[in-house]
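To close the chapter, one final illustration. This time we ask the reader to focus less on the individual chains and more on the assembly as a whole: which components sit near each other, and how the overall shape emerges from the parts.
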Amino acid sequence: MTVIDRYSRQELFQPIGKLGQQNIRNSHALVIGAGALGTAIAESLTRAGIGKLTIVDRDYVEWSNLQRQQLYSEADARDRIPKAVAAKKRLYDINSDVEVVSQVMDVSIEEIEQLIIDVDIILDATDNFDTRLLINDISQKANIPWIYGACVGSYGLSLTIIPGETPCLQCLLDTIPLGGMTCDTAGIISPAVQIVVAHQVTEAIKLLTGNQSSLRGSLLSFDLWLNQSSSIAVDKMKKEDCPSCGNIPSYPFLDKAHSTKTAVLCGRNTVQIRPGKNTTLNLEKLALGLKPLGQVSKNDYLLSLTTGEHRLVFFTDGRVLVHGTKDITEAKKLYHQFVG
Amino acid sequence: MSVFVNGKEIVISTGKNTILSLIESYELNPKLVIVERNKEIIEKDNYKSTILKQGDHIEIVHFVGGG
Ligand SMILES: [Zn+2]
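The assembled structure is written out below.
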């Protein structure tokens, strides 16, 4: 076996073939989120020989991630490596032919407008509806398909959204689920992740190889523990007056008035604070200033300060994760106490 | 009376025979589900007024945020 044979099994699969493989090679996929779904999607697309893959995440690797987030190692958790950084390193080991771009950032309006440049497909691997509705709007505005995927417990679901053809997420959800309702207090088993990813990646490959007629065309869900699955044809749910995909779209989630500066992280007892302007934190300098106030540790990407029952993690892009609270006011108070 | 929910036959007690009561019996938020009855999608506004009939095939998909 040589490098030439690398994609032979995929090329032998008739609907892909050598031409399809070339199409995959010429494609750029954007994976938003590098948690359970994101790592599995990224590994699958990297092995499949995607030309370029951009992976974005705002968090760093923790021990509780290792049970299902397949690109990470114990060393990543021990050293608190940002997920996007650790993912890129592992993806390069898997397939050095793929151009992997990693971004340690919180995806909001300005970020997503930059991230989607030259992108052929967006894969949703986020853990919240705020970001998904942002993806939904930019997908319509920039005419890029996206594939929704989500899971909790032993349950998961997926939907493929193609601008101008299918209904969008906004058409299906007339209420926006609040952060708290989506938090994964029910835990998650890894096989549920893998099933969602199998659907997302297969739909992505169909799209990228010109096999549109093979797309599933339905909202799909399953529960591995209850041995149930369901599929609903949602094509009739496309709404003419939808603010995202309708006749006169307003893209409400790309409106800066909607952008949030703070967010409670899903199931983490953590609040994220984003500075208003784009800033760069000098971690060396910050470490010197914070040493008298608590226990400080740092790596190339972030600095961690433990003080009392709270831990604050500062990223070079100015973001701070305040661990040990779900209370935004309390988190902001701590933030201002340490960074002024 | 019994209906099929996501392929599984379940027994419905009298007085709990609407789409809404079915959704609630699974402790799901009616605003976050898509429901199909015998291949027809039921509008959210009609969950309360839609009465289940013996042998109905119901599909329920609920949205979650995790990932
Ligand atoms: Zn829509």
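Residues 153 and 186 of chain A are 6 Å apart (CA to CA). The radius of gyration of chain A is 20 Å. With these observations in hand, you are ready for the problems at the end of the chapter.
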